Amino acid sequence: MTDRSSRMDEELARALVEVESRERRRMAEVLHDDLLQLLAAARLALATTDGQDRASNLLESAIRRGRQICRGMEPTPLVGGLDETLPRVLDAVYESHRVQTRLNLLASPRLSPIVHDILLSCAAELLVNVARHAEGSEARLTVEATNHWVTMRIDDDGPGFDLSRVQPGAHRLGGMGFPALERRIRALSGGLDWWNRQPKGASVMVCLPREA
Ligand SMILES: Nc1ncnc2c1ncn2[C@@H]1O[C@H](COP(=O)(O)OP(=O)(O)OP(=O)(O)O)[C@@H](O)[C@H]1O
Ligand SMILES: [Mg+2]
Predict the structure, then answer these.
(1) Which of 46, 53, 60, 100 has its CA 20 to 30 A from that of 186?
(2) Domain ranges of the chain
(3) Does ligand 1 have an atom closer than 6 angstroms to the CB of 69?
(4) Which overall architecture, per CATH, does domain 78-212 show?
(5) Contacts 24+ apart (CB under 8 A), 19-25
(6) Is residue 138 scored above 90 in pLDDT?
(7) 155: Cβ below 6 Å to ligand 1?
(8) Per-residue pLDDT tens for 173-202?
């Protein structure tokens, strides 16, 4: 084998490993973001006295999602601008987790498809966090844009982040959700920030370049 062809083989092998590990990460994220959240919500519903129907619907959704994942399908692409897609995400999160969200769309900027997708998955993940960690609180989701950036902020009126357990600004919050969001946001050179408000409530802000 010539030097040149063995170098090409090496490059190819490295590229394949990279694709494979990216795909594994993506699958882990899909499992975490979709399937496990649905199953966790079903377990929560089962623990309530009148949660049987809700648990059964959630399990149906989990089975459907599991089948899609097994077939290696991408999630159905959501078509339209944020003004069309975000309300659908909010409806879906309401269905699965009963979080009421007030949407304040100060802009509906044109975004590249990947930024659009990531913004929607951030919205879903952060609203599920409101359901889990700020139970009973309404969420407010605000979207703003400049020529180059889009920001999405989610506020709730729950107890806020437990600052005795976490380092402000370090984003080490203990779960898998924040690190997964951060990875996706960082890959697009965006930013994620979170803080507590006075007298109470948690806020999370995601900032992404519109055209990444
Ligand atoms: N809206 C919120 N209000 C208060 N605390 C929150 C809120 N969102 C997140 N947290 C805190 O940050 C931690 C990390 O959140 P993260 O989403 O990474 O993990 P998780 O929700 O606990 O689990 P999962 O891996 O299933 O997402 C949570 O465990 C919780 O303590
Ligand atoms: Mg979470």
Answers:
(1) 100
(2) 1-76, 78-212
(3) no
(4) 2-Layer Sandwich (3.30)
(5) 25/183
(6) yes
(7) no
(8) 667 788 888 888 888 899 999 999 999 999
